[in-house]
Specification:
alpha+beta, 6-stranded mixed β-sheet, globular
């Protein structure tokens, strides 16, 4: 999969008018993200500040903030088996029952809801195109999809599960257990149950830990936000914005790879109607 499209690719382009209408049909779902998927989401307090506040309060402040009615039934149930408060470690994370869906971020456990089918389909299609490009160009990189543990930092207080991630270090790919270190690329499909986790908490986490490129994908409004945390020439944290009408370049591939969201849209448009 190269960055340039050939003539055959053009035949797969959706009607832009129809695409925009599909992304707008269910306005109640888009209200879920109002204030969280436009430029104003960059104005939220940094996740680092949230970590400090959450660590002493069982991580409830962000999880319990007021949400639209239509998302409340999607919130992950706070299982009593999940430890509250801060200061928890990777050892505790790995000792939890396998049926618990959680991430550990700076010593605080965050419950995760099971992903919806739309979420899964978008993540799968992104991974499929990226993996094809890695194979086609013989890139020395390795792709994984959730659930796959990524242990960030030397303090052993953070283990996350990006929807899709790529790293390009064969030495780090050896052995079993969590991937240790910072991937080169991570992508998260926005969840209506916990949008702040991807928009702010993980964005700041990935930036701090040296992940080079981070994508946030919102299928409900057909938007893709690309954060390049190295040599971007932009104000730190400022994203590039794309739609599902675009061929989105993968910056860490130096022009070899891109994800064609027009193809992805064709696979999911019936789910947005």
């Amino acid at each position: 999969m190269s960055k340039d499209l050939d003539d055959n690719d053009k035949s797969r382009e959706p009607n832009k008018k129809d695409q925009k209408e599909s992304c707008r049909q269910d306005t109640s779902r888009q209200d879920t993200y109002k204030g969280e998927t436009g430029d104003d989401f960059l104005q939220e307090p940094s996740a680092a500040e949230a970590y400090i506040e959450n660590a002493g309060e069982g991580s409830l402040q962000l999880q319990n903030r007021k949400r639209p009615e239509q998302t409340r039934d999607l919130l992950p149930f706070q299982d009593p088996r999940i430890p509250s408060g801060g200061g928890h470690t990777e050892e505790e994370y790995l000792a939890l029952p396998d049926d618990l869906r959680v991430e550990l971020i700076d010593g605080v456990f965050y419950a995760m809801a099971s992903p919806q089918r739309l979420h899964q389909r978008v993540a799968f299609e992104i991974a499929k195109q990226l993996d094809a490009c890695i194979e086609e160009h013989g890139l020395p990189c390795f792709l994984y999809i959730a659930p796959s543990d990524v242990a960030l930092g030397d303090d052993k207080k953070t283990v996350v599960q990006p929807d899709v991630y790529v790293h390009c270090d064969i030495e780090k790919d050896k052995g079993t257990g969590p991937f240790r270190g910072s991937p080169d690329f991570a992508a998260e499909v926005l969840s209506p149950s916990n949008p702040e986790n991807d928009l702010w908490r993980k964005r700041e986490l990935y930036r701090r830990h040296g992940i080079r490129e981070y994508w946030i994908i919102n299928p409900q409004n057909c938007k893709v936000y690309v954060f390049v945390f190295e040599n971007s020439g932009k104000e730190e944290g400022s994203p590039e914005e794309y739609s599902f009408e675009d061929l989105v370049p993968v910056h860490i591939s130096d022009g070899s790879c891109a994800v064609d969201f027009r193809i992805i849209y064709q696979k999911i448009k019936h789910m947005l109607e």
